[in-house]
Design brief:
The chain has one helix and six strands; from the N terminus they run ββββββα. By secondary structure, the protein is mainly β. It comes from Oncorhynchus mykiss.
């Protein structure tokens, strides 16, 4: 299957997914934007692709998650969706707040720890 998407003003389709799966989750879509999707496929053992489907329009309604700027001890990415602890003041890194309630009960959140401290030995705890 090939899934393509148009979401830029240029109007050019871009490949979003190429592979064997019949379902695919598209991530990192801009909010409050029309997205035009189309798909084509080829059967098992076939070499030719089907014609493109009739384009389908989807509209994103959720705003992207943003961390609150000015949180001491953290550096935010340009889109404020990624927060990294600052090495300059690790002891001052406190609570990190989001800009708005963009997630709700029942949604899955995934946190990725890129850097962790080495484990403490038992003797250092005594």
């Amino acid at each position: 299957m090939v899934l393509t998407l148009v979401s830029s003003p240029s109007g050019q389709y871009e490949d979003t997914y190429i592979g064997p799966e019949q379902e695919f989750l598209v991530l990192h879509l801009d909010p409050h934007t029309d997205h035009l999707f189309r798909v084509c496929a080829r059967g098992e053992g076939r070499t030719e692709w089907s014609p493109w489907s009739v384009p389908q329009t989807g509209y994103t309604t959720l705003a992207p998650h943003e961390w609150c700027p000015g949180s001491e001890g953290y550096i935010l990415s340009s889109r404020r969706n990624i927060a990294m602890r600052s090495d300059s003041s690790p002891s001052k890194a406190g609570v990190l707040y989001s800009n708005a309630p963009t997630y709700f009960c029942g949604q899955t959140l995934t946190f990725k720890s890129v850097h962790t401290l080495p484990p403490l030995s038992v003797s250092s705890l005594l």
